[in-house]
Amino acid sequence: MPTESGSCATARQAKQKRKSHSLSIRRTNSSEQERTGLQREMLEGQDTKLPSSVRNTLLELFGQIEREFENLYIENLELRREIDTLNERLAVEGQTIDGAELSKGQLKTKASHSTSQLSQKLKTTYKASTSKHSNSFPGKAGGSRNFYVGSWEIWGGDSWIVSSFKTTTSRAICQLVKEYVGHRDGIWDVSVTKTQPVVLGTASADHTALLWSIETGKCLVKYVGHVGSVNSIKFHPTEQVALTASGDQTAHIWRYMVQLPMPQPTADCNQMSGEDEIEFSDKDEPDGDGDGSSDCPTIRAPLTSLKSHQGVVIAADWLVGGKQAVTASWDRTANLYDVETSELVHSLTGHDQELTHCCTHPTQRLVVTSSRDTTFRLWDFRDPSIHSVNVFQGHTDTVTSAVFTVGDNVVSGSDDRTVKVWDLKNMRSPIATIRTDSAVNRINVSVGQRIIALPHDNRQVRLFDMSGVRLARLPRSNRQGHRRMVCCSAWSEDHPICNLFTCGFDRQAIGWNINIPALLQEK
């Protein structure tokens, strides 16, 4: 009997403790029925004029919010444990491998593969973000959003983990001309229109796509039709129409109209050496509200929504002529659509893992898709009756992008820290291989001089020619350059002010002026 009385007293104390904390966000082992019953008991004991139906609705909504916060909290804890484990393993390896003391350079090399795997995991989580996750933690307010952004310090701020080869930057002039600031989260993709007026487009994890005046840096149009991370943006070859792909499992086609503002004088950015490395903290990142996109015209709904995928749509592009579009998804397929009818024309299957990118040939009906299965595939739609496919296995890790050049080449980049140049007429082996010190993201090749721009996880942007010769590294210092992972690059050779654009997870896009004749002369 004394034992039974003690158990009853303990149960009463536990119940009172649960009541006093029932409105706090917590992780609990109690069942959903117990939790709902406890909340209902509390409301019934309060003096309220709310109808019973309203009270029940509020209880249900608060329960959903609490569960969502719990899930996000648990995910953050698990990711933090993984990061701590990785850091501990790297520290141990740096001290005791083969019983000998590793030099700093050796530790950098050995750690690079592990950190690239971690960066891929974090990028994957972010690109799949949906409205629930992102709206719960806007901007840098905290929670999962703040954790993911801060995590870029692992390979961005800790210079001992990810190395940078300290070679001399080319004397060719590579000047920063304009910064485009207004997104509230990292920017995945950047693109330039092919029609007049020429504007810049950016796709962001903040669920928006923005169009910018290249000359003034002013936001011209905001597209808010997606409810997930916007992972890519491409412009129609002849019309003022954009194609965006999103984590909400759709691709949207939407029309825009822009009126360019009067250009303002551009500040003179002196040429700087890419050797001036300065480490940044989160407070050094541009404020997403600084140049505000809140006052620009907003487009809320698409002309057409392409909805055939069962997973995140990671990229999309227009086929030559603009009458068809192709999308790439994490459901391991790429889809070809008729733009006018939104009907699915072909579903391209064969990849063993999630797709990471897709690209179309500028003059022929060819499509190349890349995947986490370490391959990229070439799809040929030139003959309407035959749709051939070729598989290329030239990398040892995720192929992050593969793009066509104007000629007969394909250039592929990978998390294995290599870029390979292929000849379409003989793709058994690459004709050139570029080896780097960091994972390569979405690459781009200039039309005229065929210069490859490589954006890296370690915040660098490097320029190479098609034979694999390095031409330059864009300046990075405490005054200019990206402060986080660089996600994408895009050339616009004919523009008189900026002929290269890059974007990154520091929530900004940058316009550069590359003196191409001087660049090639240094070669």
Automatic annotation (TrEMBL):
Acidic residues biased stretches: 278-292
Subcellular location: Cytoplasm; Nucleus
Domain of life: Eukaryota
Biased composition, class Polar residues, residue ranges: 1-10, 22-31
Keyword Plastid: no
GO cellular component: cytoplasm; nucleus
WD repeat intervals: 180-222, 223-254, 306-347, 348-389, 392-432
CDD domains the UniProt entry points to: WD40
Annotated Basic and acidic residues bias: 32-47
PROSITE patterns, per the entry: WD_REPEATS_1, WD_REPEATS_2, WD_REPEATS_REGION
Family matches, as SUPFAM superfamilies: WD40 repeat-like
Entry keyword set: Cytoplasm, Nucleus, Repeat, WD repeat
Region (Disordered): 1-49, 278-300
Official protein name in the record: WD repeat-containing protein 37
Protein species of origin: Platysternon megacephalum (big-headed turtle)
